[in-house]
Write a structure and sequence with these properties.
Elements (H helix, E strand, L loop, with lengths): L8 E2 L2 E4 L4 E4 L5 E3 L6 E2 L4 H6 L31 H10 L6 H9 L2 H4 L3
Antiparallel strand pairs: 1-4, 2-3, 4-5
Amino acid sequence: MRSCDTHNLQWESAYNDKLRTYIVAPGSVRLICPVCGHIHEENDKSWMIQNGEYVHQAPELLKTHPGYQVGALAFQLKSMSWDYIAQQQLEAGKTADIEEQISFDTRNPRTSFQA
């Protein structure tokens, strides 16, 4: 799976009366491998990076046309935790307006998050 494929995240959510919105249940976020179905927890992140578990989408192109990306799922700062990504994805969901979706799709970790 690619480290930018945030659609592989799954989580539980609950309605928060005080905030009047749904929030991600802390600790419920998991990353599901689209190939084998293995469930990863965020504490697997470093191991996944070090062992090449985030892979090129077209490995046959690695020698002639390698692709490089900074994927949110592999981001090491705590400010971009999987819980945070899930909450942003939840807010940009089907009921959100187009500005929320654009913000989610174009968020820059250097300017949008605190270390």
